[in-house]
Each structure stands twice: as structure tokens, then as C-alpha cells.
Amino acid sequence: MTWIIVGAILQTASFSRAQLLVARFVTGIGTGIETTTVPVYQSELCEAKKRGKYVCSEPLFVGVGIVIAYWFDYGMSYVHGAINWRLPIACQVIFAIMVVFLVFGLPESPRWLYRHNRHPEALKVLCDVYDREAEDPKIMSESAEILQAIELETLQGEYKWSQILKRDEVQTGKRVLLAYGMQFMNQMGGINLVVVSDIPEPKVVLPSKY
After folding, report:
1. How many CA atoms lie within 13 A of 44 on its CB side?
2. CA terminus-to-terminus distance, the chain
3. pLDDT digit string (tens) for 34-71?
């Protein structure tokens, strides 16, 4: 969110094309971090049968946000002056600040805690999420699955870019292609061709004198 806030401020205050492009790149880093982190975090804190629905909610709300943003842009196109593009860009700061405050109420990732040998904390997070005791079969099963996955990843060693399509025990290649395929189909749907079209300058039609 810091990347997004800084980038949005720089975009809003831009007075040249170069500054706007650099600022957009900064915002893009923050957006990329968000879109890659949220689905993974969601997956760690929900049951397998609900995982697909929750993970799909993230791109769904992204799409809803895009719709709202473009209609807002369209409305601002009728306003004269630099505010017609500065205000829509600045509005993203509001949502980023909201996320900054909300994120402090979220539990830590249990997988991250397990990987850093903070097992009691990880177990407590699982208990809080599922509202069950540590001895509950569900909690024990979730804990065992996470530890098993971490063990498999550790055995494979640190991944390199050349190995992202590797067929291994944790199906790295399949996961990468699935994620890539989702993004590819999203772009190839033609939506960008629609949204990047220039909005015509509004015209005022005066009534005839006769």
C-alpha cells in the first residue's frame, strides 16, 4: 500500500509525461505485490472446498473497482481543467489508506509462522480462524498439511527462474501455467480495447433560434 500511495501522489502531482510514467510504474509495483499476495493469503486461511470462491472474489472486486473507476473517469471528462484527471488518480489513495488500517486486524500467515519455527503462534492462528481447539481433528489436519507442504518445498531447494515450469511434487509448473492462463484470458477477452478508447469531448448543443 505504501508503493501505491507514493505512486498515486506522484501521478496526481505530475507535470510531464515522463513523471507520470515513472509514477505509474511505482504504483504498478504496489499493485503487483497486492495481486500476488492476497490470493495466497486467502488460500492459507480457508477450507479447500471454499478456496476457489474466496480466491475468485479478489479479481471480481478488482473488476468491480475498474468499472467504478472508468465511470468516474467518464463523469470527470465533463469537467474542465487538470482536475478531470488528477482527482480520479488521487482517489486511489483513499482505498489504499483504508487497507493500511484494515490489514493490522488480520492474522499472520500460518505458513509463514511455521516456516520461521513459530509453531505455537501458527497453531493459534488456525484455531482462531476455524474457531476450534488445537486438539480438533480439523486443526491437526490443516497443521499437518502445511508442514508437509513446507517439507516438500524445502527438499526441492530454492527455486530459480529456469525452474518455474518444472514438473515436481508440488506441481510448480502447473500452478504457474494456471495463474498465467487466468491473466492471459483476462487480457485476451478484449476488455483493454474497450477501456483505452478515447472519450470524446462533450459537446454543448444550443437550441435553435427559430
Report:
1. 23
2. 58
3. 888 888 888 888 877 888 888 888 878 888 888 888 88
Residue 160 to residues 133, 164, 172, Cα–Cα distance (Å): 39, 7, 12
Q: Which residue has the cell 487466468?
A: 182
Residue 136 makes CB contacts below 8 A (sequence gap 6+) with: 127, 130
Domains (range + CATH), the chain = 1-106 (1.20.1250.20)
Contact 89, 12 (CB under 8 A): yes
**Distances in whole angstroms, Cα of residue 16 to Cα of each of 1, 7, 93, 140, 203:** 24, 15, 21, 57, 27
For residue range 173-185, list pLDDT tens digits in order: 888 888 788 778 8
- Residue 189 C-alpha from the chain's centroid: 20
**What is the grid cell recorded at 101?**
488500517
